[in-house]
Amino acid sequence: MEAYVRRIQRTGKSTYTVSLPKSWVERMGLKRFDEVQIVEFERGLMVFVGGLEADDEAEVAVGESAEPETVVRLFFSKYLDGYGKIKVQFNTASPQAIGMLKDCIRRWLVGVEIVEESSTQLVAQCLPMHDKLPVKTSIERMGGIASNMIGDAVTSFLGADEELAKEVLKRDDEVDRFYHFVVRQMNIAVKDQRILKSLNLSSPADCISYALAAKNIERAADHAENICRKVLSIRRAPRQDEKIVKLSAELVNVFRSSVNSLLIPDVFFADKTLRNAEQLAGRIEQLQAQPGYESSAHQTVLGSLKRVAEYAADLSETAINLSGRAVKVTA
Fold first, then answer.
1. Rounded Cα–Cα distance for residues 125 and 53 (Å)
2. Cα–Cα distance between 243 and 305 in angstroms, integer?
3. Can you say whether the dihedral through the CA atoms of 294, 300, 303, 309 is positive or negative?
């Protein structure tokens, strides 16, 4: 990336101008009377050509030997990378792969519409939604769903409630949808400072932080799913255990606080939540080692709860990093 130096010129009484480098203008294909965008940032201005659109079309070419799961992974990679239109082209008719891909798109992706389909081709349009679903709103919704999943997963375990366990499993798809959407938005924002500004993020480093936070929430939901799958495998109720009930209730509160710490720029709140999460993880680990909790079911549940507490600590640490990027921080 080349840097250009220009002097500010004054024309008239109230207008200042800066000339654009000829080589840059020619490379961008600009001509007289074309418009450019000048976007203001905290540390200066940037000049852009064009609108706030996602990257152009991407194509996934599928050979005869490709498995349907591979096709799904390749499509998702293009979605996460920020492409606005994705075309999947098959060498031969592949109804099974196309059917699986359509199902996965519906289950796990936000803002994708299938605009063209045949026996050998599928074209999807990814709608620009950065102004309709801000990243913090996505994080907040992910955290709310995951928190409720954790509490309900423990309830289903202690009551051997298979119907509740199945219902919790369905909610994991919604968490995955938000996770994929956040990663997509962050990838686009890293490449386009205008999108970054429209998302109310201050720097590309924020994109990394929010992507990591979304991953931690998604992993926490996976552990709620893990508990529910254990419920469906044992098909019998363990003894009611007040210690697990109390610890899980505390965990839900701490996890919610850790998500809130990402939304509230308060270093001290985030630090307090971090310490609470670490202490809770230690108490869960101690309970794992106590007599009466040796069974596979108890170890699975307590192990998952401990991991959720650790993810809560990671979320709070991310919040501290976000809040601590101010020029001056007082401890």
1. 12
2. 13
3. negative
Which residue in this structure is represented by tokens 């366990």?
165
Tell me the HSE value of 244 on the side-chain side, using a 13 A CA sphere. 27
The predicted-structure confidence for 59-109, as pLDDT tens digits, reads as follows 999 988 889 999 999 999 999 999 999 999 999 988 999 999 999 999 999
At 15 the three-state DSSP class reads strand
Locate the domains of the chain by residue range: 9-48, 58-126, 135-323
E-strand spans in the chain?
9-11, 15-17, 37-41, 44-48, 58-62, 85-90, 112-117, 121-126
User: Which fold is adopted by the domain 135-323?
Assistant: Methane Monooxygenase Hydroxylase; Chain G, domain 1 (1.20.58)
CATH of region 58-126 = 3.30.110
Q: What is the Cα–Cα distance from 115 to 110, expressed in whole angstroms?
A: 15
N-terminal to C-terminal alpha carbon distance within the chain = 38
CA dihedral of 245, 249, 149, 263, whole degrees rounded to 10: -170
Positions of E strands within 42-111: 44-48, 58-62, 85-90
Q: What is the CA radius of gyration of the chain?
A: 25
The predicted-structure confidence for 242-260, as pLDDT tens digits, reads as follows: 999 999 999 999 999 999 9
CA–CA distance from 245 to each of 143, 242, 305 (Å)? 20, 5, 11
Cα dist from 99 to 13, 77, 238, whole Å: 65, 18, 40
Residue 8's contacts (CB-CB under 8 Å, 6 or more residues apart) are: 16, 17, 18
47 with 37: CB under 8 angstroms? yes
pTM here is: 0.82
Separation CA 148–CA 164 (nearest Å): 12
